[in-house]
Amino acid sequence: MHENETQNLSKEAALEALLFHYGEPINVKNATKLLNLKKEECEKIIYEYEKKLKENPERGLTLLKKEDKIQLVTKPELREIAQKLIEEEFKQELSPASLETLTIIAYLGPIPRSTIDYIRGVNSSFILRNLYLRGLVERNIEEGKGNLYYYQTSFDFLKHMGLTKQEELPEYQKYKNVLESFEIQTQQESI
Q1: Residue 31 pLDDT more than 80?
Q2: Structurally, how many domains does the chain consist of?
Q3: Domain containing residue 11: CATH number
Q4: Fewer CB within 10 Å: N-end or C-end of the chain?
Q5: Are 64 and 106 members of one domain?
Q6: Co-location of 9 and 57 in the same domain
Q7: How are strands ordered across the β-sheet holding 69-74?
Q8: How confident is the model at residue 5 (pLDDT cuts 50, 70, 90)?
Q9: Which pLDDT value is given to residue 44?
Q10: What would you measure as the largest C-alpha separation in the chain, in angstroms?
Q11: Which residue has the higher pLDDT, 20 or 80?
């Protein structure tokens, strides 16, 4: 293997790791920045990675591209596996990890996944997708805060809990103040 091929392989591996960890559609511009690449180089790596996934029938993943965003997803021909997983999840009650994530969103939302991951100490993509599919959380992009999804509880969550608004949760303001203090501290540290 030539040195150039090895470098591309490690850059492809970095792209794959980024897509896997991010778990949601990511803007190519953000991927370029996070991978510390030039735009043309990143686009070439994305193209090569997409080509490898398509050409190899042994792979269960593909690269989904829409406008300026990309996402690592299950190949359409394997959707039965994903469907079984979702059906199995819906048969079960919410796991402790799901309840923990839902609580974080209920008290601190709207909140980006990166903050949820930071608080929990693990990647929450699968749990967030499950909560979203169950209709317990919504995700939106907030203007002026980049292209991140911000999660908040849904109307169905409020109805299920017997609440008319999020602020009626027990000790809501106390936990909201904790988040605001954390955000102020984080901003001051980055200066």
Answers
A1: yes
A2: 2
A3: 1.10.10.10
A4: C
A5: no
A6: yes
A7: 26-27, 69-74, 61-66
A8: very low
A9: 92
A10: 63
A11: 20
Q: Is 49 exposed, middle or buried (0-12, 13-18, 19+ CB in 10 A)?
A: buried
Residues 6+ apart with CB under 8 A from 134: 90
- Please report the pLDDT score of residue 3 as a whole number: 45
Q: What is the pTM of this model?
A: 0.55
Tokens of 68: 């300026």
| 100 within some domain | yes
Which DSSP category does 123 fall into? -
> CB neighbours of 158 closer than 8 A, spacing ≥ 6?
164, 165, 166
Distance CA 122, CA 128 (A): 12
Q: How are the residues of the chain apportioned to helix, strand and coil, as percentages rounded to the nearest 5?
A: 60, 15, 25
Residue 120 has pLDDT above 70, yes or no: yes
CA distances from 164 to 55, 83, 150, 167, 187 (A): 52, 33, 21, 9, 33
Q: State mean pLDDT over 146-169.
A: 80
Is residue 174 domain-shared with residue 97, that is, in the same domain? yes
pLDDT higher than 50, residue 77:
yes
Which are the contacts of 159, defined by CB distance < 8 A and separation ≥ 6? none
Instruction: Say whether both 56 and 104 belong to one domain.
Output: no
CA-to-CA separations, 183 to 110, 111, 176, 179, in angstroms, rounded: 13, 11, 11, 6
Short-list 80, 146, 92, 149, CA closest to 116 = 149
Mean pLDDT of 38-61: 88
Average of pLDDT values for 182-186?
72
